């Protein structure tokens, strides 16, 4: 039994094992079957993409899915506390996938539950299964994760996918890691300080874009700015458009955890660099591999 | 692989094949099994009946069901666009059932998705699987669809079930087709003009009711009238009550896509003509037949 | 085929049969399989715990689950009446689990439906499957239900779990049954009068607590008091805290249907008397036993 709370919960070897398991699933060599074990979705913060992806992965490995994908109409609304809800699901299922708006909620759930907890995003903290998808996509395209130049782009301060990805990269040997964001949305100091590789911080994507192998895009949200004028000023500089893509290497790739709003121009979808839909398609097999490992481990 | 967007997507032979497949399922001769393929429900417009019917049909043929039956708590609320949501579900599933409040949404989804799209109602446009149920009910009761007198009754302008039924009837040889509605809710000219049979339009159901074999009732909604007085005036004339049923043939039938509010008096439920609950009971087998055809085709 | 509307629908022998079936399921001797029959959840009043418990029980016996756990986005919102919704689910499934805010809703559903109805809570009336869990917990801990002293504590007037438990106890031979509540929330006279055992009513738990084997706690809701001052006065006296537990017998137990808000101090969770999480864990096996009995009966 193991919990998946942070990218740090996986070693380099374990990441590679997951990639290989996922390859076997995609290739039809492995037909995982957990024989009707039950997976709980405990989405205190709503999400279609992630919830549906976990549900699909669960069904496809022969599990059953229960739980909720929004707290409306749940006991949470009657005032039940988080721990009691987790204890309920612990009784019902063999694994609990938790999403919550508070940092640390998944960790707290893991202290309450004797069944494995999978963090599907907790506040501004982490979203480790997204990093598994991200790096699996890199692995599929480049054959490996090591030796590449990464650029994380957009909101690096509040995006939990960024925290998880930065931490996941400590398990590999990236060549260069660029962090491209407005001053207000720089990656958090406490995370940057704990990394075992150096990062290069920039405001302007054009300074480094021609050097990038993997461009990882996150959305900048208006709400992060105290002043709408501030937001309007920087907004345009943090959109991936055809002009930016022209400066990218031929064999570089653009990733995005999705959903995307305006931060990638739709015309980019047809460039060879656009790999975010392919990336999304890898969410189900890698989560199948993860849940299968947890439920049969 | 095929999409089901309009009643026009099915030929006379294909309708009959569906009816026969559904007969085999009901009779227990065929136990369809798609071995865990995944069906997505993408209900951007909420619906219990149709969503539950598709879900039941999917589970009963051995499929798994994912997706959403309301957009609350979905990425759609975060601003994700329709195409990206469809692309997500395309990654997760072998077939996508779409309901949307906009005309043409299903068609648009079929242009984005490489997986088959089933239109479960798009705005005021079409709802083709409802017509399959409607005509399958006629087929079960009368042994055939040809040679009968149909009357479509109520709101013929905004009801997508009416559009789909009128178009589905082009695949058969109805004897007479009466369209009974207030002036304001006449069937759309562009649809009437494309039909390969003649229609007879009337205001007053009593003019033709004794001639009708199949009375197809739809609800008139107050919101369709700019002036509530207008609505109050016509409301009573478009209710199926015991008095109207008395004028109907002994072996005629009353259909309704349900849910029904006040447009059929509850006392009618016990008349031999009332076949709308029987009709509803055929929703699952015919959708089993359709999904089975799509998923194994 | 049978409906489960009230605790009265089960005889002493049938309660014991359920307990034994549930024991076999827990012990792994019985692996119930209903081969894909369909269970409907018709939760007109939202509930996570009960809905998820029934869903889990259904999946674990090889059933499929359809329906709704909240009326938002359902036909009910379009004005469809309750009977038509039940008739819809009757077409789709082999069993319908109903929760509704109106007393008598489950009974009414059973008059409409030819498929078995399971009452999962109707207004202030009953919640019979909760009593099955309650008494099964007693049976597991004490080896039997007879000969024990029960105390029902808190809101005895509006809590449907109390009505069902009082009625279920008529099938057994409780030694003493204490009813501990404020004057305003006394158990209903019409229910007390129909019981085949005597009850002892008290305001103050300390009068009887040292005599109690099974303390059954329910939440007192502020809304029940016309005057908030009234509520504030009595509130503190109806909380189970460490002080009260100190007066309890070593081998007595505390039960609660959950969710719990403040009526049991969280520090009580670690006392040996606290059995409400264990009780919750028995919800799934006893409901598996019940649904299996209904679906194969």
UniProtKB/TrEMBL annotation, chains A, B, C:
The pathway noted for it is: Pyrimidine metabolism; UMP biosynthesis via de novo pathway; (S)-dihydroorotate from bicarbonate: step 2/3
Cite a single GO MF annotation.
aspartate carbamoyltransferase activity
Q: Name one GO biological process term.
A: 'de novo' pyrimidine nucleobase biosynthetic process
Instruction: State the reactions this protein catalyses.
Output: carbamoyl phosphate + L-aspartate = N-carbamoyl-L-aspartate + phosphate + H(+)
User: Which parts of the sequence bind carbamoyl phosphate?
Assistant: 49-50, 99, 127, 130, 258-259
| Pfam families on file | OTCace (PF00185), OTCace_N (PF02729)
Q: Which InterPro entries match?
A: Asp/Orn_carbamoyltranf_P-bd, Asp/Orn_carbamoylTrfase, Asp/Orn_carbamoylTrfase_sf, Asp_carbamoyltransf, Asp_carbamoyltransf_Asp/Orn-bd
User: Residues in domain Aspartate/ornithine carbamoyltransferase carbamoyl-P binding?
Assistant: 2-139
Superkingdom: Archaea
Domain called Aspartate/ornithine carbamoyltransferase Asp/Orn-binding: residue spans:
146-293
Q: Which UniProt keywords apply?
A: Pyrimidine biosynthesis, Transferase
Q: What class of enzyme is it?
A: transferase
Enzyme Commission number, as recorded: 2.1.3.2
Annotated L-aspartate binding sites: 78, 160, 219
How would you summarize the oligomeric state and partners of this protein? Heterooligomer of catalytic and regulatory chains.
Q: Which family does it belong to?
A: Belongs to the aspartate/ornithine carbamoyltransferase superfamily. ATCase family.
What does it do?
A: Catalyzes the condensation of carbamoyl phosphate and aspartate to form carbamoyl aspartate and inorganic phosphate, the committed step in the de novo pyrimidine nucleotide biosynthesis pathway.
The name on file for this protein is Aspartate carbamoyltransferase
Q: Which organism is it from?
A: Candidatus Aramenus sulfurataquae
């Amino acid at each position: 039994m193991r919990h998946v709370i942070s990218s740090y919960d996986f070693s380099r070897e374990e990441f590679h094992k997951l990639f290989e398991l996922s390859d076997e699933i995609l290739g039809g060599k492995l037909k995982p079957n957990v024989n009707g074990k039950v997976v709980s979705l405990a989405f205190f913060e709503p999400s279609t993409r992630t919830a549906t992806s976990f549900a699909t992965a669960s069904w496809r490995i022969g599990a059953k899915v229960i739980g909720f994908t929004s707290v409306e109409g749940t006991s949470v609304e009657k005032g039940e506390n988080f721990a009691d809800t987790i204890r309920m699901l612990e009784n019902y299922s063999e694994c609990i996938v938790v999403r919550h708006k508070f940092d640390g909620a998944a960790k707290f759930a893991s202290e309450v539950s004797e069944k494995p907890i999978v963090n599907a995003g907790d506040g501004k903290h982490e979203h480790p299964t997204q990093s598994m998808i991200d790096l699996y996509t890199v692995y599929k395209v480049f054959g490996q994760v090591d030796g590449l130049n990464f650029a994380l782009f957009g909101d690096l301060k509040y995006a939990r996918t960024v925290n998880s990805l930065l931490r996941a990269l400590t398990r590999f040997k990236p060549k260069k890691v660029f962090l491209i964001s407005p001053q207000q949305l720089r990656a958090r100091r406490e995370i940057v300080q704990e990394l075992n590789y150096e990062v290069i911080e920039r405001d302007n994507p054009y300074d480094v874009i021609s050097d990038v192998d993997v461009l990882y895009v996150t959305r900048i949200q208006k709400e992060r700015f105290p002043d709408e004028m501030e937001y309007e000023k920087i907004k345009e500089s943090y959109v991936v458009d055809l002009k930016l893509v022209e400066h990218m290497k031929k064999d570089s790739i653009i990733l995005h955890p999705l959903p995307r709003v305006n931060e990638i121009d739709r015309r980019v979808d047809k460039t060879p660099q656009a790999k975010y839909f392919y990336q999304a398609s890898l969410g189900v097999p890698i989560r199948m591999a993860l849940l299968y490992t947890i439920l049969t481990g």
